[in-house]
């Protein structure tokens, strides 16, 4: 019970801080504006929010960054912020450098899985020992993608994992983290840099993360074709049992002065099954389908 109260209190504290900072800058017609980490600290002080029990200012500064992280990647904005966005538009926060951030008003993208999409059945190649001892949900998803070569299947290339949870800094953005980074090539000799963002069943793909992933590719691998991939873990009941369904998306981004348009280039759903659940009839269906992209 105490833990639940503490989480609720933290949520309310974060709401007060981010709302005050937003409203201090916002006026009707504005589509973007910057704010600093010191403004977050000042807003916390005015709201009477104690960020940390510790008196170490450095620790407090690091902790206040979790307010921004929460609204960039985990939680929707408070109602007071959402209501200022016109229909079919939404606010996001992006990094603009060390301790500097920007609110941007963008066209609301469609990041959710299409429930009517055809499902591709895949022999689940994840080792049982890996499934049993997976450390957390996100790591488990990355492992399922890796062992089942889903990036290869989805991107139609040979892809190799370079690093997962890559943390680095980008000039003009600040520190970023990429869930997993792949490099790949196809039979024409084209080479790709492929950042992958993964989300569990309860989480949503993040716009800010897509933008920073693409910027990392532009800055660090300009000679490679960047392909921003999102992966959403879902669940599918099949033959009376529940199995993991992984929805993979490829996104493209148009970054304009007054808007950001994010579109799906492709979407595929992969159902990971034991071999007994994939029949000759499934093979026949697959042979008759045309791959449009």
Commentary on this structure:
It is a single chain. The protein is α/β, with parallel strands linked by helices and 293 residues long. The protein is built from 9 helices and 11 strands. The chain folds into 2 domains: 2-107, no CATH class; 119-288, no CATH class. The protein has helices at 2-25, 37-46, 57-74, 79-82, 128-132, 137-147, 150-155, 207-220, 280-288; strands at 32-36, 89-97, 100-107, 119-123, 158-170, 174-185, 191-199, 225-226, 228-238, 241-256, 259-273. The strands form 2 sheets. Strands 4, 5, 6, 7, 8, 9, 10 and 11 form an 8-stranded mixed β-sheet that branches. Strands 1-3-2 form a 3-stranded antiparallel β-sheet.
Summarize the structure.
With 293 residues, the protein is of the alpha/beta class. The chain has nine helices and eleven strands.
Topology:
Blueprint: H1 2-25, E1 32-36, H2 37-46, H3 57-74, H4 79-82, E2 89-97, E3 100-107, E4 119-123, H5 128-132, H6 137-147, H7 150-155, E5 158-170, E6 174-185, E7 191-199, H8 207-220, E8 225-226, E9 228-238, E10 241-256, E11 259-273, H9 280-288
Parallel strand pairs: 4-11, 7-8, 7-9
Antiparallel strand pairs: 1-3, 2-3, 5-6, 6-7, 9-10, 10-11
